[in-house]
Amino acid sequence: MTTSKIKQLALSLLRADSESEVIDLLKIEGYWDDPTVWRLYGDKEGNFATAGGQQSRPEAALVEKIINCVDARLLLECRLRGIDPESQVAPTSVRDAVAQFFEGRRSEDDQAGTLLQWPASRRTEESRAISISATGDRPTQGRKTRRMCLTIVDQAEGQSAKRLPKTILSLNEKNKQKIHFVQGKFNMGGTGALRFCGTQGLQLIISRRHPKLAEAERANDHTADSWAVTIVRREEPSNKGGESFHSEFTYLAPVDATQSPRKGAILTFESKALPLMPEHDEAYRREVEWGTAIKLYEYETNVGQSNVLMKDGLLYALERLLPEIALPCRLHECRGYKGEKERSFETPIAGLVVRLEDGRGNNLEPDFPLTFAMNAEGMAFTGRIYAFREDRAETYLHDEGVIFALNGQAHGYLPKTLFARPKAVGLTRLQDSLLVLVDCASLSVRQREDLFMTSRDRLSTNRIRFQIEREIETVLREHKVLRRLQQERREKDVESKLSEEKPLEEVLGRVLKASPTLSTLFLKGQRLSKPFAGAGSQSGKGGGAEKKGEAAFNGRRHPTYFRIRNSPYGALFHRNCELGRRCRIEFETDVENEYFDRGTDRGSFALSVVDASSTVQTPNYSIELADGVAFLNMSLPEEATVGESIVIETTVNDPTLIQPFVNMIKIKVLPKQERHGGTPRPRPERKGAGAGQKDSSTGIAFPEIVSVKTDDSLWQKYKFTPETACHVIADQIEGDGENQIAHTFYINVDNASLLTEMKYSKQDARLLLAKFKYGNVLLGLAMLHADRADGETTRNGNDSSTESMPTLNVYDQIRSVSAATAPVLIPMIDQLSGLDESELGEQGIIGEDA
C-alpha cells in the first residue's frame, strides 16, 4: 500500500463507529481474513489470560488508558529536559513530577503537584492535551443502538512503529519498573479494556513520536518520524488436534509478514498533522503533529450509554475512579446531543476532590471534609471524610463508601453499606451521604502488593485488608462530629412526628405486655431514644457544641502543648485495658483541627512500643483532632497477654518544632469482662401473665414509630414506593458500658394494600391503620430478635468483599418481607382472630383428640 492509501485507511478506521464498518474496511484491503498479517499481542501465546485477568469493571479498565496518557505526558516533559527517567535526578513521585514539570518547583510541601491548587483556567487549558470523546449513535427511545465508541488521545511522547511492539503492544515488559513517577508498572493494565470492546475486541492505535524525541532516535529507528497505525482484535478460540485453545489478542502487522509470519511490522505513513483531537462536539477536528490516539469500538459501560456528561454518565464514574488525577483531561460528548452553548459538549476532568472542594454546588455539609490519621498493621494512612448534604451524594457516588487512592487513582473501595453496620459503625442515617477517601501514598511497595490486586481496581482479601477495614470502622464509629450529624438527621426525621404516634404506641405496649411470649421477647426496660447523649445539635469540626457564653475554638498553626488530659506533661500515664477491647485516651492541645492533614507543615503522630514483658508489635490506632482535644483510639497488640504491662510512646512533630511532644503511657492488660449494655436498673416484680419469667437478655427495646406519607420528604429520602410497608433504621445509644441499639420504624401509611383495605372494608379506617402499624412493628421486632439471637446482625452487615454477591442485612430483609406480607397482613389479622373452637370443629379442622 502507498503511504497516502495507508493514511486514508487510518482516517477511515478512526471515523468508523461500529465493528462491522471496521471489518469491512479491513476486508477490502485483504487483511481481515489473512491470519499471517496478525501478530500476537506481546508476542505471547495465551495472552488472553493476562488481558482477561485485569480490571473487573469497564470504567476501571478505561481509567488505565487515561493513566497511561498521564504517564506519557510526564515522560515527555522529563525527556524534553534531558533527564533520564530512571536516573537519580528524575522526580521521585507522580506529585513531584507534576510540581517540577508543570509548576517549576519540587514537591517540598503537600500542596505542590496537586490540581486543587491550580486555578480553574489552568486546569482547563492543560486538559486539552488529553481528551476522551464519545462517538457513535446516541440512545433514542424505541430504537436499538450500538454501544458508543470512545477515543482517547494524548499529545505526549508518542510511539513509532518500531517502538509500539515494545511499549503499548507489549506485555509484562519492564518498561516503567525503574521509573518512580509513573503509575503503570506491570505493563499489562492497558489490555484490560480489550475484553469490553464489543464482540471482536477491536482497538485502533495511531501514534507518532514527538519530533524532538524522534530527532534523537532516528539513527536507530527508521520509523521515528512516521505515523504508525494498527488495530487490535480478538481471535476466536480454535480447536486443533483435539485440544481447546483460549482466545488470543492479535494486532495488524502486515509489513514483511510473508518473510516472518506473525512477526510482521506495523503500517506507517507520512503526514505533517492529523485531525485526532476533538473540538466541542466534533470528535476529529483539531490537528496534532504528534501523540497517540486509541479508539475503543462499541465499548461496554456499567453507567449506561446516555450522555457522558450527565450525572448518570461516564464523567462522574471516571472522577470517582480518579479522585486526585495527576493531570487533567477533557471529556467530549460527540453523539449529536443538543446543547445550549459550546460548554454543553465538553468538560475537564480534574478528579472528585477538585469537584467537591473547589466551592461549586454547595454539596457538602458545613466544615467538611474532616481529616484523620490512622495506623493499621504497621501501615500509615491519612484520610478525609466527606459528608454530603441530603440528596446530594447520588450525583457523585454509586456504591462507593471508602475509596483507597494511590497517586490520585482509586485502587479499590469498600461499599457504603459499611456505614450502616449497626455495631461496628452505626451511621445508618448517613449511609448515602458519606465518602471516605484514604490516601495510601505512604505505603511501601510490599504493602501495596499485599493490599491491592495487580489490576489496581480492587482490594485483596487477605488479613491486612480486614485489619484496615476494622480500623476505619473505629474511626467512623468514634468520630464525634459524625455522630452529632447523625443525631441532627434523626431529630429532623423523628422528633416532630413522635407526638402523633404516642396513643398508638401505648396501645402497642399493652399488646406486648398482655402476651407472655411477646413480653419475654421484646420488653426490655425504658426506651433509649437519645443517641449520642450530650453531643449537642450544632454542626462543625469541633468535638462538642459550644456552650453558652463560651468562645469558639481558634486553634494555633503549631501546638505549644500536646499532653494527655488530666496528667502532668512528662509523667508516665497509667491506664488499664481489657484484653480484646480498645483503649481510648484523650490529649489536650491548642493546635488547629487540620494539623495532621493540611497542605503545608503538616504534623505527624507516631506511636511505638518501648517496653513490654513480651515481644509485641505496634498496635493499630487512629487519631483525630476536635477543637483542642485529640482522641487516640488504640487496640491492644495481638500478642499481649493478661497481666502484662506495655509502655507506649507517642510523638507529635512537624517541620517547625524544635522539640517534639512526647507522652508516655503504661497500659496494664486485664482479662476481658463481659457486659450486657450497662448497669441494670431494679424493676418491680411483674404479676399476671409472664410472672416469674426473667427478662430476656436479648430483648429488643421499644422502638420509635414514624408514619410516612407520599407527600412527606421522608418518602423520597428513604426511597419508598406504594408497595413499601416498613423501613427500619438503627441508631447507637451511648450508655455505661457498650453502646446499645435503638430502632426507628418508618411505616408507609399510604401503602397500596392498606389503602385498598380502607376503601372496601366496613371497618373504621383508624382501626385498619392501627392493625397495619402494629402488624409491621411486631413482624420487624421478631426479625430483629431472631437476628440478634443468631448473631447475624454484624455478619450480614459486614460486606467484606465487593467481589461476592451481597447478603441482605436484617434491615433490608425487614423491608423486603414487610412489602411481601403487606397484602395479606390485615386480612390475616381479621380472619384468624375471628376463628373459635366450635367453628373449627364443625369444619373438621380440630377434633376431640386435637
Continuous helix count: 20
Query: Uncertain segments of ≥5 residues (pLDDT<50)?
Result: 525-549, 677-699, 792-806
- Beginning-to-end CA distance, first to last residue: 95 Å
The helical percent reads 25-40%
Rg calc: 32 Å
Q: Main sheet?
A: 10 strands, mixed
- Quaternary form: single chain
Which percent band covers the strand fraction?
15-25%
Report the principal-axis shape: globular
Mean pLDDT, as a whole number? 80
Structural class: alpha+beta
Q: In the residues, how many domains can be counted? A: 4
* Total number of strands: 30
Topology:
Elements (H helix, E strand, L loop, with lengths): L2 H13 L3 H10 L9 E3 L7 H4 L6 H23 L13 H9 L17 H7 L3 E6 L13 E6 L48 E6 L2 H7 L9 E9 L3 E2 L2 E2 L3 E5 L14 E3 L4 E6 L2 E7 L2 E6 L17 H8 L7 E5 L12 E4 L2 H6 L12 E7 L2 E9 L12 E7 L2 E7 L18 E6 L5 H7 L11 H16 L1 H15 L3 H17 L1 H7 L39 E3 L8 E6 L3 E8 L14 E9 L8 E6 L2 E7 L9 E9 L7 E10 L33 E5 L4 H5 L8 E8 L6 E9 L3 H9 L4 H26 L1 H5 L13 H24 L3 H6 L8
Parallel strand pairs: 2-13, 17-19, 21-27, 28-30
Antiparallel strand pairs: 1-8, 2-3, 3-12, 4-5, 4-12, 5-8, 5-9, 6-7, 10-11, 13-14, 15-16, 15-24, 16-19, 17-18, 20-22, 22-25, 23-26, 24-25, 26-27, 29-30
